[in-house]
Amino acid sequence: MRRYAITNRTLFPQESSLPHPPQSYRERWDPQQSTQLNALLRQTALWATEGIDYIQLREKDLPAAALASLTRSILEILHNTPTRLLINSRPDVAIATAAHGVHLTAAPGQLTPAQVRKLYADATLPPPIISISCHTLAEVAAARNNADLILFSPIFHKSVAGELINPGQGLEALRAACLAAAPTPIYALGGVTLENAPACLEAGAAGVAGIHLFHTP
Q1: Between helices 64-78 and 35-50, what is the axis angle to 10°?
Q2: How many CB atoms lie within 10 A of CB 146?
Q3: Are strands 163-166 and 129-134 parallel, antiparallel or unpaired?
Q4: Is 120 within 8 Å of 99 (Cβ atoms)?
Q5: Which pathway, metabolic or otherwise, does it act in (predicted)?
Q6: Which pLDDT belongs to residue 14?
Q7: Which residues lie across from 84 on neighbouring strands?
Q8: pLDDT tens-digit profile of 148-207?
Q9: Residue pLDDT, tens place only, 18-38
Q10: 3-state SS of the chain?
């Protein structure tokens, strides 16, 4: 099963009692830096050790300089591992840091995969890996053969404090998306758990994606 982890540093506690990172990347750990950012570095190292296929760096509130610094630290951690780092919606940061790729949304006004690939080529960087978020079959059709992989969501319902806030589209919608996207792989996103992940694969997904799914408390 292919796995695509999405970051969210706010899931980590802000207290300074978190353990120090492993020696393998301790030189990149800054005790003066945000505890949550240090925890995120530790998490990315764990993901690489576990063989996670893709990490999407989704820290949208960080200024460009801070995001670039964090990206470089993660790329050092991922060096000589098969885990690839994609930057959410910031091709400029991805190119400046030579990240492995970019994640795009299907929202109007964003750069297209073709435009991102041209920017990488102009910067004499290897071709980027491009993932894109899709929520409808029309968006899947538009992304097909343009992106390297598609995150289709939401699959399962989401509840907060017992209140349903997102009903999810279900496995049949995922199955239809996988057929519409072929041969571009679909990763199931939204309410995916270890228990329901096999059903996503049976519906045709190449893998699963998530935030809470892969974060270690």
Answers
A1: 30
A2: 15
A3: unpaired
A4: no
A5: Cofactor biosynthesis; thiamine diphosphate biosynthesis
A6: 72
A7: 54
A8: 999 999 999 775 555 655 678 999 999 999 999 999 999 999 999 999 999 999 999 999
A9: 445 444 444 444 444 578 888
A10: CEEEEECCHHHCCCCCCCCCCCHHHHHHCCCCCCHHHHHHHHHHHHHHHHCCCEEEECCCCCCHHHHHHHHHHHHHHHCCCCCEEEEECCHHHHHHHCCCEEEECCCCCCCCHHHHHHHHHHCCCCCCEEEEEECCHHHHHHHCCCCCEEEECCCCCEEECCEEEECCCHHHHHHHHHHHHCCCCEEEECCCCCCCHHHHHHCCCCEEEECCCCCCC
Place of tokens 């300089």: 65
Q: Is the pTM of this model over 0.85?
A: yes
In this predicted structure, the answer to whether residue 17 has a pLDDT above a threshold of 60 is: no
- Give the model's pLDDT for residue 216: 82
Pairwise CA distance, residues 92 & 108, whole Å: 18
Per the prediction, the chain carries an average pLDDT of 89
First to last CA, the chain: 22
User: In 46-80, which positions are buried (b, 16+ CB within 10 angstroms) versus exposed (e)?
Assistant: bbbeeebbbbbbbbeebeeeebbbbbbbbbebbee
